[in-house]
Write a structure and sequence with these properties.
- The complex is a heterodimer of chains A (454) and B (127).
- With 454 residues, chain A is an alpha+beta fold.
- Helices cover 60% and strands 15% of the residues of chain A.
- Chain A folds into 2 domains: 197 residues; 223 residues, PPM-type phosphatase domain (Phosphatase 2c, domain 1), CATH 3.60.40.
- In chain A, strand 5 and strand 6 form a beta hairpin.
- Chain A is rod-shaped and about 160 Å long.
- Chain B is of the alpha+beta class and 127 residues long.
- Helices cover 17% and strands 33% of the residues of chain B.
- In chain B, the strands form 2 sheets. In chain B, strands 6-5-4-1-7 form a 5-stranded antiparallel sheet, covered by helices on one side. Chain B has a two-stranded antiparallel sheet with strand order 2-3.
- Classes of the chains: A alpha+beta (454), B alpha+beta (127).
- Chains A and B meet through helix 1 and helix 4 of A and helix 3 of B.
């Protein structure tokens, strides 16, 4: 779970980072395009200003040329006039084009007026004077000329003002865009910083909670776990495999509990269902049976009393338990047991013969019926194997169950210490299938002269 | 007379660039240095602020004084003309020409067409 959270956290952090990066790149590209466009506009405006200045110079050249010609009547003075007239039109078109591109309607109108005035100056003032240089410079013509020149100057001043305004506006817009982008980026930076901080805080909290949960779970698992105490002159082996991957507990339980110096209680049970819910019942079974066994040494009576208690304590009709309870007299090697529907118990004699221990009563939690007791005399080298149906019902890759006959066959081939036998069986089960369909618990006791081994 | 002129600036002309009594020379821009001298302030105002189509109708009311014509300031109206295409304002100067073909004629011009040449010249700069 923690690995998953760590991976999810890293993935989320990467996603946030990638998103932030995408926004930053996108914003940068957009700003670059905007600023480039603004610079293009500014350049166009500056070009128009230069062209207009040039236009006014040409106008001055024309005016000066005509004035010089009028005074001196030397045609050489007219050369700048004709040269300026040729250059005038392209400049005028260039300015007009820029005004059009920049949607400067007022400036276009001013340019149009400028052109009209200029044309009028040509027709009314310049051309008559050039055509009749000997004619006395008429006062009215001079005044018209002066007024026309002033008019052109006014139109040019208007265009200059509009260009300056436009230039200022573009500069302001560009500056605003740069400022806006800066503020936006700063905003994003703060936002992502906050998100990262919140995310980090959230993940820390989650990890802390998960750690607490894990500690709680481990404590509970220790309480639910099957366990055994060493017995004199016995070897003990055990295994517990939960069908639930992430839980170390399940619906199976075994217990080997030394009640007195001479008597030991052994128990194996299988609760319908698996996982944590079933594990809770197994804890109930383990401690309830221990409690009853301290007062009653007859396994049939223990099961009967437990059956009553179980049906009262667990009113769920879908829950039932198969259980074998045995009381072992260590000195006489006598095992007295009662089996409530639990058919996975086997005795392997020292000579290699194997028998299963028959059930002596119904499954617990279904009905209240009496249980009978059986007594077994055990010899040195005998191995008692208590298992749950996870063993007999283990399936191979083709779905075939092992069944009781299979277990009997395996046991017959198994020899050695109690733990070796258990490990061998687990190994065989695992070879058959990679994933158990049910929990599997096994408790093996080999009787002999040796001291019990954990 | 000179003593009287010396105290004159305390009146409504105090902020003007030139004072009544100043000797001035008329000179317009390099584009056309001759100066239009108007017979009334109102027409000068209209010429300066209206379009050429209006201006040319007013021309019979103006005389074209040659650049360099000398004159004496008779009055000054501070910031009387608000130019259309800039934040600048111009003074209107009342004058009496003292040289040239229109010697003795009075009229009105804008401050930009005036250059002070007399002893009472001020050095105030236009905004």
């Amino acid at each position: 779970m923690r690995t998953f959270l760590r991976a999810a956290g890293a993935l989320t952090a990467t996603a946030i980072l990638a998103f932030g990066l995408f926004l930053a790149v996108n914003s940068t590209l957009a700003t670059r395009a905007t600023i480039r466009a603004a610079f293009d506009h500014e350049r166009a405006i500056q070009n128009a200003q230069l062209d207009l200045s040039e236009l006014l110079k040409l106008q001055l050249d024309e005016e000066t040329a005509v004035r010089g010609f009028t005074i001196t009547r030397e045609t050489v003075f007219l050369e700048p006039y004709y040269a300026a007239s040729v250059q005038f039109l392209p400049l005028d078109h260039s300015i007009s084009s820029i005004f059009g591109q920049e949607h400067m309607v007022a400036a276009l109108n001013a340019l149009q007026e400028f052109n009209q005035t200029h044309e009028e100056w040509h027709q009314v003032v310049a051309q008559p004077l050039i055509a009749h240089p000997t004619v006395r410079y008429a006062i009215d013509l001079a005044k018209r000329g002066k007024a026309l020149i002033d008019g052109e100057r006014n139109d040019a001043a208007e265009m200059q003002m509009l260009l300056t305004q436009r230039d200022d506006l573009l500069r302001r817009q560009t500056q605003d865009e740069i400022n806006r982008t800066g503020y936006t980026r700063a905003g994003w930076l703060v936002a992502f910083g906050l998100i990262a901080l919140l995310f980090n805080a959230y993940q820390s909290r989650l990890t802390r909670e998960l750690e607490q949960e894990r500690t709680t779970t481990e404590t509970l698992q220790r309480a639910f776990q099957s366990e055994f105490e060493p017995l004199p002159h016995c070897q003990i082996g055990s295994a517990y495999i939960s069908a639930t991957r992430h839980a170390a507990v399940g619906g199976d339980v075994f217990d080997l509990y030394r009640m007195t110096d001479r008597l030991a209680l052994m128990l194996i049970a299988d609760v319908s269902g698996k996982g944590v819910d079933a594990a809770v019942i197994t804890a109930f079974i383990k401690f309830t049976i221990r409690g009853i066994a301290l007062r009653r040494h007859d396994p049939a009576e223990i099961l009967a009393e437990f059956n009553t208690a179980f049906q009262r304590a667990v009113p769920n009709p879908d829950l039932f338990v198969s259980m074998l309870v045995g009381v072992l007299d260590i000195e006489s090697r006598t095992l007295t047991y009662a089996s409530g529907g639990h058919d996975s118990a086997y005795l392997r004699r020292a000579n290699g013969t194997v028998e299963s221990l028959p059930v002596t009563g119904p499954i617990l939690g279904v009905m209240e019926q009496p249980f009978s007791t059986k007594v077994l005399q055990l010899e040195q080298g005998d191995v008692l194997l208590l298992a749950t149906d996870g063993l007999t019902e283990s399936r191979d890759r083709k779905g075939r169950q092992l069944n009781e006959s299979g277990v009997l066959g395996w046991l017959a081939q198994s020899d050695g210490g109690a733990q070796q036998i258990v490990d061998g069986l687990v190994s065989r089960v695992r070879k058959r299938t990679s994933q158990l369909s049910d929990d599997l618990a096994m408790l093996a006791i080999r009787f002999g002269d040796g001291v019990a081994v954990a | 007379m000179l003593a009287l002129l010396a105290v004159w600036p305390l009146g409504v002309h105090a902020d003007c660039a030139t004072m009544p009594g100043n000797q001035i020379a008329l000179f317009s821009s390099n584009y056309d240095p001759d100066v239009l001298v108007w017979d009334s302030r109102r027409r000068l105002l209209s010429y300066s602020t209206d379009s050429y189509q209006v201006a040319k109708l007013l021309l019979p009311h103006a005389i074209l004084a040659r650049a360099g014509t000398l004159a004496v300031v008779t009055s000054c109206h501070r910031n009387a003309i608000h130019q259309k295409f800039s934040s600048r304002s111009s003074d209107i100067i009342g004058l009496k020409m003292t040289s040239g073909e229109y010697r003795g004629r009075t009229g009105w011009v804008v401050m930009e067409d005036v250059h002070v040449v007399g002893l009472r010249a001020t050095h105030r700069q236009h905004p």
